[in-house]
Amino acid sequence: MRVALAAGVGGIAADCGGVLSCATCHVIVAPEWAARLPRPDADELAMLDMTAAPREPHSRLSCQIVLAPELDGLVVRLPATQY
Questions:
Q1: What CATH number should be reported for the domain holding residue 52?
Q2: What is the pLDDT of residues 47-77, one digit of tens each?
Q3: Residue 26's beta-bridge partner residues?
């Protein structure tokens, strides 16, 4: 989330600043990348139930994705809306 914001990627509101309290950094992870990420914890799953756009099978909150070298090239798409 922070990398996308710093790079000027539009569409990620990130209203809470990454503290897992708003679901406005909702992204959909490409299926081929989804298994490479740690499973979402209970708090993230609860927030994903509150996304503005319908939740999808590979929906995640970008604030909970910790970037590491093995995720170089990670592909996500943005939902139609964050609000």
A1: 3.10.20.30
A2: 999 999 999 999 999 999 999 999 999 999 9
A3: 61
